[in-house]
Write a structure and sequence with these properties.
single chain, 246 residues, alpha+beta, 2 domains, 5-stranded antiparallel sheet, 4 helices, 24% helix
């Protein structure tokens, strides 16, 4: 079977199952129930592996087990891509966990979530910076993602991005100056945190106005509409259910 470049394979396999580890474990679980020591061909066929703890809507991985026990995974979004995961061999007829073993949450799924959340942090941070540059040039905030010319799509597989300018929150007492601009990355899937970025004006630097930015992450995974930041009279603060991130 032809193989794609390692970087492409690692990318989709990582996003689906964190580093492929869950895929291997899943293949072994299925195989243990079906492979006989002298009848390994019974396990040969096509199998579907679904990871625990990943965001809802995450694709299942189709694996093919050969009569020799070799495990190959197919890219769920491109059937022309595949990667050889390894080989499975039955070592015992025991099909229960050893006594005292504690089952932990799926660490690979957590890595997958972190990869998706990294996208949102990066995108919202980029929108913040683009708003600062836009204001420096035009003396106003961009109203849409397209106006920022930052090259970010309004919606990806895991997140929905938006810009909202809030004139009712004034951070400087100067006539005809805009309020704040809020950039959001709202999770579309369960298990993912949402993000908020905001840029505002400050007059705390002598006679010159400066644009300052904050970036916030929800304390818990959330697909709810992102809340607005709060102004304490000196600076913008993250909403109650959010915390600042660098």
């Amino acid at each position: 079977m032809a193989h794609q470049s390692p970087s492409n394979n690692q990318n989709w396999l990582y996003l689906a199952f964190g580093a492929g580890g869950t895929l291997i474990l899943g293949a072994i679980v299925f195989a243990v129930l079906n492979i006989g020591k002298s009848a390994q061909p019974q396990s040969a066929g096509t199998w579907k592996v679904e990871a625990s703890g990943v965001p809802s809507g995450s694709p299942a991985i189709t694996i093919i087990i050969s009569s020799e026990g070799k495990v190959t995974a197919l890219n769920p979004q491109n059937g022309g891509e595949a990667i050889e995961v390894g080989k499975i061999t039955k070592i015992s007829d025991i099909a229960t966990l050893p006594e005292g073993v504690k089952i932990q949450s799926n660490p690979f799924a957590n890595q997958s979530n972190k990869a998706r959340q990294s996208e949102a942090r990066t995108y919202v941070g980029a929108l913040n910076r683009s708003q600062q540059a836009y204001f420096l040039e035009k003396n106003k905030w961009a109203k849409t993602i397209e106006e920022t010319a930052v090259g970010i799509k309004a919606e990806t597989e895991s997140y929905r991005y938006d810009i909202q300018n809030i004139d009712s929150i004034k951070t400087v007492n100067i006539k005809n100056y805009s309020g704040i601009t809020v950039q959001t990355g709202t999770a579309k899937k369960e298990g993912l945190k949402s993000y908020l970025g905001a840029v505002y004006l400050s007059g705390a630097f002598g006679n010159e106005l400066a644009s300052l930015a904050i970036l916030c992450e929800s304390n818990e995974p959330s697909t709810k509409q992102v809340e607005l930041p709060k102004f304490d009279g000196k600076a913008l603060q993250c909403p109650d259910s959010y915390q600042p991130v660098n």
